[in-house]
Amino acid sequence: MKAIYVSLLAAAGVISAGAAQAADESELAKSKGCLACHAVDKKVVGPAYKEVAKKYTAKDEAMLAEKVIKGGKGVWGPVPMPPNATVKPEEATKLVKWILSLK
User: Residue 13's Cα: distance from chain center in Å?
Assistant: First the structure.
């Protein structure tokens, strides 16, 4: 019985850590202006993050992180994504990993 209790506590810790990390990435996206044009589950100016997560895989992380910083155009329609030079490479990677986890 004690082993089950310990296992449940460990699982709860992992789940709450994941939720806290997701909140951190969401706050990072907000602070960098990403949420002005994107939302998790609906198209705003740019695609919903869940749609991005459906289209790309972990193999695309580096390319997507570069697009977060340098911007892009033509993939999701005629409206270009402007460059965001305030996002550091490690922040861009963190954001992309979070977005891709939203499947």
Answer: 22
**Residue 23's Cα: distance from chain center in Å?**
10
The pTM of the full predicted model, rounded to 2 decimals, is 0.77
Nearest to 25 by CA among 99, 88, 89, 81: 99
Cα dihedral 86, 89, 93, 96 in deg (nearest 10) = 40
What tens digit of pLDDT does each residue of 2-18 get? 554 444 344 444 444 44
Q: Which two tokens stand for residue 64?
A: 């997507």
Q: Is the dihedral of CA 22, 34, 89, 64 positive or negative?
A: positive
